[in-house]
């Protein structure tokens, strides 16, 4: 097992993700909190962009004989662009690469690939199902708005279902800390879905706490999973299999861990069940 530091504390592993995923895939899973609205991360959860991030980053680091391992990548996932880059480069203080130079190189290489990024399994079916049943949905991503547009322009059959209800990491009209802070999910619920969940930095009332508990967050990253739980919402974690071997130091634990969104069963969360006519991916 490998160790990764997601927050400022030292790693004190307590969570076996591989055990949890087998428990959550059992035929008779534990009952979950009934939910009324759903928030999605994007990169690595809805689209297969994390491979592009990894390949491009390692192409740049390879010039210096370095590599971004999953121990490092786990702490980058879900963070706004600059925060993620700062986290990455903090592991390589001996290379002659500034933050700005890294971002210029990375963005140039990524821009060529974003228009080809595919949806991940189960995404189209789930999004269309929630939309058909009028379940409020929104996207909360650390991706920059410019990159969001590039990644999704060719995938509007799915992303159009959100009707513009998207918060990106560089949206200046919303002031928030990046994941694992809960800010982006609280803001998405309040500003995009008009849920009475209170405000960032303020203690929620009993009613607002209850309203937060009605939200379901889909995430693939560890910081994002933490953010969803800190927001007082339920979290379905759909990690890359490499993350299952990372020792985790945080207190937060996902409510459910799945291999893919294809494994999600809506009625387990009090949502309408899939029907035979639901669109397949």
Automatic annotation (TrEMBL):
Superkingdom of source: Eukaryota
InterPro entries in alphabetical order: HAD-like_sf, HAD_sf, PGP-like_dom2
GO molecular function, one term: phosphatase activity
Name assigned to this protein: HAD-like protein
Organism annotation: Leucocoprinus birnbaumii
């Amino acid at each position: 097992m490998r160790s990764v530091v997601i927050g400022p504390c030292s790693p004190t592993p307590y969570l076996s993700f591989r055990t949890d995923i087998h428990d959550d895939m059992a035929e008779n899973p534990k009952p979950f909190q009934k939910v009324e609205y759903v928030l999605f991360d994007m990169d690595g959860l809805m689209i297969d962009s994390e491979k592009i991030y990894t390949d491009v980053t390692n192409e740049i680091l390879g010039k210096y004989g370095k590599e971004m391992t999953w121990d490092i990548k786990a702490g980058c996932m879900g963070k706004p662009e600059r925060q993620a880059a700062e986290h990455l480069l903090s592991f390589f203080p001996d290379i002659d690469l500034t933050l700005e130079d890294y971002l210029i190189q990375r963005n140039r290489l990524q821009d060529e690939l974003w228009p080809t990024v595919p949806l991940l399994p189960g995404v189209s079916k789930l999004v269309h199902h929630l939309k058909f049943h009028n379940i409020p949905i929104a996207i909360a991503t650390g991706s920059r708005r410019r990159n969001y547009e590039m990644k999704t322009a060719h995938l509007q059959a799915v992303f159009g279902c959100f009707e513009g209800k998207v918060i990106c990491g560089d949206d200046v009209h919303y002031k928030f800390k990046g994941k694992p802070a809960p800010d982006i999910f609280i803001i998405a619920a309040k500003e995009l879905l008009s849920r009475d969940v209170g405000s960032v930095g303020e203690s929620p009332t009993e009613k607002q706490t209850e309203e937060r508990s009605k939200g379901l967050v889909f995430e693939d990253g560890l910081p994002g999973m933490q953010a969803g739980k800190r927001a007082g919402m339920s979290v379905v974690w759909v990690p890359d299999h490499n993350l299952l071997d990372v020792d985790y130091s945080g207190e937060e634990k996902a409510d459910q861990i799945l291999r893919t969104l294809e494994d999600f069963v809506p009625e387990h969360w009090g949502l309408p069940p899939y029907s035979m006519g639901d669109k397949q991916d």
